[in-house]
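Q: What would this complex look like in 3D?
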Amino acid sequence: MTDTAKTEQEISEHTSSAARLRLKKRYKSERMFKFWGQGAIFFSIGFLVLLLSTITFKALPAFTYHFASLPYDMSELDKTDISKLKKADYDGMVRSTIRSQFPNVSGRKDKKTLSSILSSGAPVILRQQVLKNPNNIDDPSSFAVPISDFADLYLKGQITNSTLEKRDELGQISILDKQVEISFEQNIFTNITNQIAKRLEKEALLMRESMQGSIRSLEKTKADIKIINEQLLGASEIETERLNKEKSRLLDKETELYVRIADLRSKANDLKTRAKLVISQGEEITNKDQSILIYFNGAVVKAQYVTPNRIIGKLLMPFDNGVPASVQKWQLRMIETPQANRKFSDQEIVWIDELLTKGFISKDFNWIFATKGASREPEMAGIWGAVVGSFLTIIVTLALAFPLGVAAAIYLEEFAPKNKITTIIEVNINNLAAVPSIVFGLLGLAVFLNFFGLDRSAPYVGGMVLALMTLPTIIIASRAALRAVPPSIREAALGIGASKLQTVLHHVLPLAMPGIMTGTIIGLAQALGETAPLLMIGMVAFVVDIPGALNDPATVLPVQIFMWADFPEPAFEQRTSAAILVLLAFLILMNALAVIIRKRFERRW
Amino acid sequence: MSKKAKQENTKIAPQVKIKGRNVDVFYGDKQALFDINLDIERNQVTSLIGPSGCGKSTFLRCLNRMNDTIDICKITGSITLDGQDIYDKEIDVVELRARVGMVFQKPNPFPKSIYENVAYGPRIHGMTSSKEELDKIVLKSLKRAGLFEEVKDRLDESGTSLSGGQQQRLCIARAIATRPEVLLMDEPCSALDPIATAIIEELIDELREKFTIVIVTHSMQQAARVSQKTAFFHLGKLIEEGATDDIFTNPRNQKTQDYITGRIG
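A: Here is my prediction, written as structure tokens for the whole assembly.
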């Protein structure tokens, strides 16, 4: 290349500095676009991971449960006499067995609480297991029954944290009335007394604050009275009457506020003095403080009153061999969450710990959750009823919506003349896809239940409603898939002399099948996650039995999740998350199935 | 060939297979063909030539009523096959297309096996009752289309896995497997390289013995090589028709001369 040619090239339109700049700008915008695109993807992946991990983390505890295997007295049962086994008093058996483990428990209320650390469904489960394996009554501890939901939460560490400290100090023990006093030579409880003093000071501060508030409103009331007094000077007769009424009301309020302020002041002062005196006189431990338990000689003392070197409390568990005079080695347990803030008392904690150390409680796969239907008790509630309900419903939806939708799409796409009527039908189908699902529920309620009188809460009605909802999706997707089949295939078939129906069935439909399947799966996945329309036709019913047929009352997974999310028991929170996981697994399974079927269809050619 | 058709054959114009008279074709308001009168002769290759958009493909598609699939297409005048109007209400379009086969511009094998591609036509028309007979038809068609040697070991492979020229020959094999009387070819070589084109041109010459062939082509050399009769279309009108030699050596119309010498097109 000669020099002149080179310079010519340098100044040409595409190599000038302005052009280079333009090129740079183009690359820059490309990089920006890439950056935003990647950012969006990372952002959404991050959220997805966050969502899934939160749900999984919350759900995992629901898949295991603590079961109690107690040494029931089954000597009176006869394993050959099934009818007697059916009628046996399992309620009493469970109750007496758990009480026999804690013979010192007396009083109706305590006994009731003791029984409640096992699930209220425990006798039912025990009966089921005995009837299933009557031979095992020789070894009663082979029957495992669920413990209560709060006991399970406690054992999973979801009720409270606690610390256990080994101590080695000499303490003198004396019995006062029903309480136990343990006194030490050193001030070893200053930590606790300081904490209580802090709590008292905080309360005093709160009292002062509310007193300040009362003082402010007292000042305002006084000012108001002053204004009324001024107004009264030049008021007419009617005015005077109204103002006097107002004034007497304000005066009452004033008095009331004086009383309240005095009361608050004395309370605050009282709290302050108590806070100061804790160090010398000690203080009561309320259920708003951390619980303090002292373990020694098999006994558990719950501290109710504490001074720097003394603890007075009641026995939650009795001594093994009579009351000792002194103690050297003992354990100090602090339970972080105050008893007022949890639903599992110190007494219950001690009992369940005792059962655990005796080896009666074991953690196992939560087969109740995996195999049972709905229940008000979290420990008796299972997901299987909803899974079966969802499965039956979706089968009906598929059986109705797929053939109808595909047939409608084929007719509209391949056979229908293009005129006003078909245009109207098309527009309406597209609009139907955007109709809120609850409207389909209302339609189902009005037509299927009220007009045709079909069964309430039945999967087949739910399937019909969801089929209506899914139809537009399937029709639209199928039409798009049919339209995507190249016209040359139709021409080829028609050119050989295939009829229109043969052309569609032999050539167009198989080619469109993967697309149709995708649309159908999307529609079904939508239907599977749908709650609102099913609420309308009564699939929100509380169904304990596993549905066995299309007309059995049933509920579905999303409705089950919706119901559980509403229940107040904390154990249902885990179950809700677990149910969401099951629903997700269901969806992934369906999608995997769709991919496999699609691959199959594609491989044939 | 039905008995009735045979009788009519011998009765009227034994050499003319298809007769088009005063054929007008409209796409909606637009008229695509104006008063076409054209005879297609038996066992001859008739080529339709003309610049793009002149209506030659439209006329071809009228001959087996492929235009029926276009809603807005309207046809007047008459086209007869062996003396029978193919737009008559009594004519079954499926039967007509079995008698008048078609090969398209772009190879369009079904996305099925090579065997299935060829066997599809005979099967839907119920031409055979046994598997052996069907095998025979498939092999014969593939042989006649000059494809058999190349695919004999892979009959169950997909038809779309073949090369462009092979695909087009597969389409020809598919079309002749139903034993049509007329074979319509719409620019069958436009997507092919010269070697594949030469193979197909040779094939057309052989097929002439059994079938009546109408071919639309852009290549005047091709028309000259394969056809005995040529019709020149221009702007929807049939300008000139006659023996191929006459058209190319001694055109009567100025437009024809301009076209074949490359001045319009």
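A: To summarize the key features: The mean pLDDT of chain A is 89. Residues 161-342 of chain A form one domain.
Q: Very helpful, thank you.
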